[in-house]
Amino acid sequence: MAERGQLPPYAKRLCCRPGYGSGCRLGQQAGDTGPGSGTFCAGPSSAAAAAAAAAAATAASLVLLPLGKTQSPESLLDIAARKVAEKWPFQRVEEQFERIPEPVQRRIVYWSFPRSEREICMYSSFDTGAEGFTAPGSAAGNTASGGAVDAVADENRLPFRRGMALLDGGCVDNVLQVGFHLSGTVTEPAMQSEPETVFNVAISFDRCKITSVTCSCGNKDIFYCAHVVALSLYRIRKPDQVKLHLPISETLFQMNRDQLQKFVQYLITVHHTEVLPTAQKLADEILSQNSEISQVHGAPDPTAGASIDDENCWHLDEEQVQEQVKLFLSQGGYHGSGKQLNLLFAKVREMLKMRDSNGARMLTLITDQFMADPRLLLWRQQGTAMTDKYRQLWDELGALWMCIVLNPHCKLEQKTSWLKQLKKWNCVDVCPWEDGNHGNELPNLTNALPQGANANQDSSNRPHRTVFTRAIEACDLHWQDSHLLHIISSDLYTNYCYHDDTESSLFDSHGWPLWHEHVPTACARVDALRSHGYSREALRLAIAIVNTLRRQQQKQLEMFQARKKELLYRGITSITNLEGWVGHPLDPIGTLFSSLMEACRVDDDNFHGFSDFMENTSQHKSLEYQHLPAHKFLEEGESYLMLAVEVALIGLGQQRIMPDGLYAQEKVCRNEEQLISKLQEIELDDTLVKIFRKQAVFLLEAGPYSGLGEVIHRESVPMHTFAKYLFTSLLPHDAELAYKITLRAMRLLVLESTAPSGDMSHPHHIASIVPNRYPRWFNLSHIESQQCELASTMLSAAKGDVQRLETVLQSIQKNIHSSSHIFKLAQDAFKIATLTDSLPDITLLKVSLELGLQVMRMTLSTLNWRRREMVRWLVTCATELGVHALDSIMQNWFTLFTPTEATSIVATTVMSNSTIVRLHLDCLQQEKLAGSARTLALQCAMKDPQNCALSALTLCEKDHIAFETAYQIVLDAATTGMSYSQLFTIARYMEHRGYPMRAYKLATLAMTHLNLSYNQDTHPAINDVLWACALSHSLGKNELAAIIPLVVKSVKCATVLSDILRRCTLTTPGMVGLQGRRNSVKLMSLDKAPLRQLLDATIGAYINTTHSRLTHISPRHYGEFIEFLSKARETFLMSHDGQIQFTQFINNLKQIYKGKKKLMMLVRERFG
């Protein structure tokens, strides 16, 4: 027996054996072979009492074997010891009985070690899950479900897998169990770069749970290391090979004084370097009467098991949990930290499902680190939103707390403690808000039952709803409602005589139970039941909720049908739900769907799991027939799968308002797509198609209760994604219904100028608190793309059906408001219509062209960077349809294209050889099409001569009248609306086409618009000026004489003028270009007109430019300036008195700029 006193810091239990004398010890040892191997001398009465008490406590554990099977019966001692080892701390066993026979102690100690590998796996790897667990001894071991482990590391590198490999490799040795302490050595085999290493492992355990672990490997992780796993599995799989001893205090108790002294001295001798200082210190304290040790009765024994006050929970390294979470958060989503945190959340759920108290403990540690994240304060100060992935982690955190506080069997003190902690976090300024951007002002909707009437009176006064608000509200919910307890506890809870057909009746017309509660709250109960291992109970409640929703749906349809004419006449709708179920923080539809789908995947035996819900509910007795199957409450022929599909369709089709805030809106879309993705994994059969038909009809006819009602609220969440799924599912079975659904879903009222407003006259189903605001849909581009996808799906399906294509086209033109999406639809239709393996679908091509024309009209007066691509594509589409389509777009070009687009792209493409070849046109058809193109070109030139004149001339080359008309348009516009560069370009074109006089005329017109200043010696127009002068020179003296005054007036740049002057003096005007050589006729004189005027202008330009340069010249430009003067001198010398003029010019410079001594010195050195 052991007695307890005040516990010293290094031990949990103090053990002693009062009432035994030396004689008794000797008597006990008589017949023993050695210390610890004998039995106690307790009389038979005490042994019988102990055995009888244990047997009485475990009588219920005896079960009958199946008929025809035999098995050696377990001893009563083992049955009793196993049950006691599971439930009682060893101190309670010692205190309950005066004497405990040694065989009984041994069996209790034997059965106190964990017997299931599932928990070992849970504490040494991510995401084990019940489905992935295999029985001990199987080759497969544990397989992580969902592939989550693969996202982190190779599965074989997980501690559990490595531990199994070490065990299978015979690496576990020296296994010894002393009381409630297991020790052994695990040898890591030698690797390429590392030698063989032996690690010492020690494990303490209590009531089939490992309470502490130590390993010399120095593991720093949340999970047990592979060596702890190997030793634990060795003890589970090979218990009979483990040498078992009673707690060391029992062994010491059997020793006499000499044996005890010898034991201590040998222990000190073997470990003198480690324990000698401690041994001497303890000896001094024991010998001192006033020491703390002397004041305490008994002595500590680390192998003696747990005391009554010890908490019975698995070992969890809290410090490592905090450090790991802090590390993951500091990485900001990089290096897979987001996946790691999600795996930690999955681990919490796994612990909850195993009813492990460490689940709440671990989540508390995680939440503390989340709340301490410095980024929260930074984001709040900067007014920026947290990242989407990080926001999703907070959502999961809030959902987990909701599950924990809704634990149906948690103690009141536990819930009180959690509520206090949640309120503490909730009051922190940086606590994230529920909708991710700003708090909404919705009332407290969690407490929908009367049980919550007095709960959280101040919740509506909170400025914001945080991620913890719902969990705080859920603390006021309870499980004591008798109707609720009957639902979750019995498969045969019915009332066939119940005739109350009111909205809140407890049973339906079948007599099946209904559960009327705020739907997200009711579904949170389902999630909580599933999370805590009550799968069967969760399924029962889920079925009751779905039956309630189906009944409400029928009632809603009847209610709307009664008022349909009135509502449609008034053109208004109502909001039937404050919170949409898809995208809701508690994910109610996803919870129901998952619960029902889970029931489809597991067999009846495995599904029960921990089906002892009523075992711990003292307030309610177990009902009869509780083992009948849950499908009692389904229609004949219905299955869980059908129910799962139907509730998903109900949730997706619900009319709901788009919430405020970027994150909340993105979540609506994301959750909808996730749910549809799960539905798409289900193969549809005839029974499921009936469900689809039923829900599709309801969606079309249910008015304000459906997102596909005839009149919906302007800010109702669009049904495009959902309708696309319905369309593809129904099309092979009921095409008419499929098209009705999708055509109704195509609308996007938030973009309409007029849309229905909310009906506030019936508060029983209308949300009067929805604000009348200008909608800010941050996800509008995504919604429009989904609308476009829906339309594209219909176009593809309607190929070959003229009537349906016309209907789809009208719907697109009415409902899609984005030019880019209409253009995409046009392209999609074109691709579908022109598939290479079939002839073109003319009707679909016409739809494609019609959509393209609509895009042209929409973008004609707006800036669009894809405009040229759109125009080119439209011409291609029209070409595919034929010459009539091309002629039509050219006839109506002014409503579709700009003049530049019409000439440079449309007309040019139409008249290209590739188009003629593609259309297989004869000469007459070619000429007719070309005539339309020329008419278009001339019209464009008239409207925009600056940009279209050259294209018009090019297009009209083969038609003399049209060409002359285009040329006249250029002349008319030359004096007012055209720039010198445009005129020079057309002039060069004219010269190239063999019209030099026309080119000369256009060049002179261009010169009148030009102005080159003295410092523009790199101006792009210089080449045009030189070309114009060369053209004039080649035409004759008169032309040259006419253009030189224009050049002198327009050009002030000295270098350009000198270049022109030199070129004019090299040849005789009108005589250049004959047989490629210079003519010998007399050159023009520089002393006579027109070159004299040009020479004087050039010299004057040099003088002016020189003075301008000297005004702001810097020393680094002196060399360049001297070269400039050298060129000037060459021009001066072309005059008969040029040398005198230049000398006078230089002298003037010396006098005026004598302050620039260095520069003037350089001038004198070069020019004297």
UniProtKB/TrEMBL annotation:
Q: Which UniProt keywords apply?
A: Metal-binding, Zinc, Zinc-finger
Q: Domain (SWIM-type): give its ranges.
A: 199-236
Q: May I have one GO cellular component term? A: Cul2-RING ubiquitin ligase complex
Q: Which InterPro entries match?
A: Znf_SWIM, ZSWIM4-8_C
Which positions carry the signal peptide feature in this UniProt record?
none
Any Pfam family? ZSWIM4-8_C
Under the GO molecular function aspect, what terms does this record hold? zinc ion binding
Any idea what this protein is called?
A: SWIM-type domain-containing protein
The organism is Gallus gallus (Chicken)
